[in-house]
Amino acid sequence: MAEEEVVKKKRTRIKRMPEKVATAATQIEGATEFVAESHVITDNTPPIPSIPISDEEVVMETIAEKLRKSSEEKARKKEETIDAPAKESEVIDATAPTEVPETSNEQNKESHKRPEFKHNHKPEEKAYEFDDILKGSGVLEIVQDGYGFLRSPEYDYFSSPDDIYVSQSQIRLFGLQTGDTVEGPIRPPKDGEKYFPLVRVDKINGRDPSFVRDRVPFEHLTPLFPDEKFKLNGGKSTSMSTRIVDLFCPIGKGQRGLIVAQPKTGKTVLLKELANAILENHPEVYMIILLIDERPEEVTDMARSVRAEVVSSTFDEPAEKHVKVASIVHEKAKRLVECGHDVVILLDSITRLARAYNTTAPASGKVLSGGVDANALHKPKRFFGAARNIENGGSLTIIATALIETGSKMDDVIFEEFKGTGNMELQLDRKLSNKRIFPAIDIMASGTRRDDLLLDSNTLSRMWVLRRHLSDMNSVEAMEFLKDRMEKTKNNEEFLVSMNG
């Protein structure tokens, strides 16, 4: 009987287990809600009451313990998320002054708001002003669309990355033309722009823009005979060549001179000495040395020997480049003369320039002897004919070399076309250069038209006597006689006085 009662009790306990499990789950849920409402679980919090169980109910107790731990962990995480802003505000308030003035409730509410960190935002960068900081200059070349670019002499006035854009409105406002030397501030290019644009025009050809706007075009200026002589005698650059040229072939402002030379007679060296003498005695003159179809080493030597603007197009360049370089130099010189400047162009050589124009000129059907087109020499004649002395100030002097006896019929035809256009001619003799007598100048074949306007009456009368004396000698004897007498004197005035004695 006792065993049967024990079995009945066990069966009764097993039947009541679902009810106990449900009761335990209800108690656990109540404890979880209590923890969530209190937000804080401390060590003093009474544990969730457990139901005494027997050995068979260990599984139920383990499940209840796990549920309690998970509820505590969830409550702890929720508490951390709620207290985080409060801790942050405490840290911020710790840096503020300890004494807090009495404020209203609204101010207290505003003070508890999350602060805005304005200093963390990057301030807006202002556009840097480049006005009057970047300066640019160059020679203007106007394209077909109406706008233009300032070309740099460092690139021989060809298009380059250093070109400066000039708008069409600026060209119209100041009456700019191709060849004008423009100076003014520039700014960096913006998005979509390729070149530095010109902001403002400060100077045009060294003059104020208001003065240049009312200038007279070059073609309408009145040309005169040269009446102011370039002083080639005296100074450190004085040489035997410049002293002889100064006496027998004086060069004036506005002279149109030809140096007629055979190959290897020293024409390039003579040009170099003339350039240095003019620049030393006349610093107000703007000089351009134009080298067409020359050797590259001669271009470098000329640029290092003469402190002037050297513009070149070597023999390995196409004829189109020769023509473009000559045209931009021609336009630049005319614009400077319009503004009253004295300009000197030393061209080496006009024969090669005429050959380049003959190559690029369209065929007209009329061909002269030597293969020269009838219309090809018009533009080089315009270039050479631009040399003139202007009545009310300003002059353009062009000293060009012409090649003869090169074995080419074309060179002889070109020389004959230019022979009567100049008002000064300097002949170089191959016989003198073969004997290494320099300068190899044929004195009796050289001379200047209207030299009475350049020399004073006393010097002119003595030169007539000297020429009459040298007329009986050939070129070699005359040059040796002059060199012997000039080496014994310091300057031409002393030489003329010694000849009178």
In words, what does this structure look like?
With 501 residues, the chain is an alpha/beta fold. The protein folds into 2 domains: 80 residues, Nucleic acid-binding proteins (OB fold (Dihydrolipoamide Acetyltransferase, E2P), Beta Barrel), CATH 2.40.50; 277 residues, 3-Layer(aba) Sandwich (Rossmann fold), CATH 3.40.50.300. It contains 16 helices and 15 strands. The strands form 2 sheets. Strands 7, 8, 9, 10, 11, 12, 13, 14 and 15 form a 9-stranded mixed beta sheet that branches. Helix 1 runs parallel beside helix 2, helix 9 crosses helix 10 and helix 14 packs across helix 16. The longest helix has 38 residues. The chain starts with a helix and ends with a helix. About 6% of the residues have low confidence.
In short:
The chain has 501 residues and is an alpha/beta fold. It has helices at 2-38, 58-95, 105-111, 168-174, 209-213, 240-248, 267-281, 296-305, 319-338, 350-360, 378-385, 409-418, 430-434, 457-470, 475-486, 492-500, and strands spanning 135-142, 148-151, 164-166, 181-185, 196-197, 203-204, 223-224, 256-261, 286-294, 309-314, 342-348, 388-390, 395-403, 424-427, 447-448.
Keywords, please?
single chain, 501 residues, 16 helices, 43% helix
Note the topology.
Layout: H1 2-38, H2 58-95, H3 105-111, E1 135-142, E2 148-151, E3 164-166, H4 168-174, E4 181-185, E5 196-197, E6 203-204, H5 209-213, E7 223-224, H6 240-248, E8 256-261, H7 267-281, E9 286-294, H8 296-305, E10 309-314, H9 319-338, E11 342-348, H10 350-360, H11 378-385, E12 388-390, E13 395-403, H12 409-418, E14 424-427, H13 430-434, E15 447-448, H14 457-470, H15 475-486, H16 492-500
Parallel strand pairs: 3-5, 8-13, 8-14, 9-10, 9-11, 11-13
Antiparallel strand pairs: 1-2, 1-4, 2-3, 4-6, 7-12, 12-13, 14-15
Helix pairs in contact: 1-2, 9-10, 14-16
